[in-house]
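for the recovery benchmark. C-alpha cells below, seq after
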C-alpha cells in the first residue's frame, strides 16, 4: 500500500496513455524535438495506435527519465 493511494491506482496511473504534447511538456522540450528523438530512437518508447496516432505509457516515460538521469549523472 502506498499511503492513501493503493497499488491498483498506481498501476492504472502508470498505464495511462499520454499524447506527444503531454510528454513533451513533461520533458520540457518541444513536440518537434520529441518527434526527432523518437525517429532517432533516442526518446521514450512510443506506442503506435495507428500510422498517425502515437501515445506513450506514463510509467514507461518516467522509467525512461530515471534511466537517462542516471546515465547523465555518470557522465559528470
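predicted aa per position
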Amino acid at each position: 500500500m502506498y499511503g492513501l493511494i493503493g497499488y491498483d491506482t498506481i498501476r492504472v496511473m502508470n498505464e495511462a496513455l499520454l499524447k506527444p504534447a503531454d510528454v513533451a511538456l513533461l520533458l520540457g522540450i518541444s513536440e518537434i524535438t520529441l518527434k526527432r528523438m523518437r525517429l532517432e530512437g533516442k526518446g521514450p518508447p512510443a506506442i503506435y495506435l495507428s500510422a498517425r496516432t502515437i501515445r506513450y505509457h506514463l510509467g514507461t516515460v518516467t522509467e525512461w527519465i530515471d534511466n537517462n538521469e542516471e546515465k547523465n549523472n555518470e557522465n559528470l
